[in-house]
Task: structure prediction
Amino acid sequence: MAKALLAALACLVMLAACAGAPAPAPAVASLPITGYALHAVTVKPKLARVAAGDEFSVVAEATDGPMVWRLTSSGLPAIVKANGSAPIGSCGNPPKAGCALPVRYIFLARAPGTTTIVWTEYALDCPGQPGHSCPAVIQPVRVTVT
Result:
């Protein structure tokens, strides 16, 4: 009996070890780096449909400069909830010079409805304004929760 119990316990430990980390929330949109604009430009919204209760994500690409994406509006909190962000990948240890990683922004679809989440791509060094960042592209993502 003790051997059978020990064998069953070993199987459970092996099963837990094989389960690994949960899969990341599926991406509903990707935001590529677009480049300089002479003034802020709002582009056509990306559209996403998500079931209430599901997690989803938006991936913002990255460079080591001169452009960067920033989340500027998380939408209506009654419809979607921002659940944080995390870089995708690694720059090594020690980090490689000039390494920039894409960022996965994670959201929870809370209740049926439609809301808009907005990212703004900034130029890190505005022409004629050293040390200031200026908006270049405004990218809405319209999310419909069903």
Residues 122 and 135 are 4 Å apart (CA to CA). Confidence is low (pLDDT under 50) at residues 1-19.
